């Protein structure tokens, strides 16, 4: 049995023939992931087989990913620590509604699609697979001022809580594995901090690591913000990271001082619930000696 057959063996497809076709489609696409489907498939027959699979009304994205997700769960069970990383990919489809000419206003139709997967990694940075995903189309009419009064379930921010719930499932199944849900700054929302607050009576809550976006007020410090509270904390250690080159920044190896403190945020709000306090452990990494003319690198989680 090849790797593709093994990955799709647990898929809940309505027909065994669809499962065999899925494994045959995965082989060439994985060998050339940056190519188009016709280029990766190689022959017209294999190209048609791939498109027929994707166009089959009895098969959806969840069905295609099902076997792989089950295999990912098995790999998670064999690891002491698993990082389950959430992120969002945007796909915009912009089409002209009429021909363009000199002095002709451009009328377009815009459709935006978002894919939000949860990808599992071992502590040695080995990709264990995609545990699940959420996919939706952004409505043409933006929320605008209604955003402040919309419940979280009607906002795109809800995807972070859905992803965190997904991380809690393997944590409940594997109590000897530490599952850490990881997110960038978009995931820094009050609802997640409240949902993931540590409670020794609850064993199925996954840990989380969220890059800070909001400079919240800290309860223990009089009128001090999160960054101001972490900056004078004692250095617990150092780590070195490779920084890639980009416009206005040279490539280098940066040495970061790592600080940490347990902090409490007052009046953390969840719509429909009273304001409450939440306690988190904050980690602050700051470059110790940036080169002359370069901004100091820093991250806070």
What does this structure look like?
This protein has three domains: 1-59, Tn5 transposase, domain 1 (Serum Albumin, Chain A, Domain 1, Orthogonal Bundle); 80-211, no CATH class; 212-301, no CATH class. Helix 2 crosses helix 4. A hairpin with an 8-residue loop joins strand 7 (235-243) and strand 8. Helix content is 27%, strand content 31%. It has 301 residues and is α+β, with helices and mostly antiparallel strands. The longest helix has 17 residues, at 61-77. The strands form two sheets. Strands 1, 2, 3, 4, 5 and 6 form a six-stranded mixed beta sheet that branches. A four-stranded antiparallel beta sheet has the order 7-8-9-10. It has eight helices and ten strands.
Give a nutshell description of this structure.
The chain is of the alpha+beta class and 301 residues long.
Poorly predicted residue ranges: none
Biggest sheet features: 6 strands, mixed
The oligomeric state of the chains shown is single chain
H-E order: HHHHHEEEEHEHEHEEEE
Give helix % range.
Answer: 25-40%
According to DSSP, the number of beta strands is 10
Radius of gyration: 23 Å
Q: Based on helices, strands and strand pairing, what is the structural class?
A: alpha+beta
Overall shape: it is globular
Give the overall pLDDT as a whole number: 84
Strand portion, in percent? 25-35%
Number of self-contained structural domains = 3
The count of helical stretches stands at: 8
Distance between the termini: 43 Å
Task: Quickly list its features.
single chain, 301 residues, alpha+beta, Serum Albumin, Chain A, Domain 1, 3 domains, 6-stranded mixed sheet, 4-stranded antiparallel sheet, 10 strands
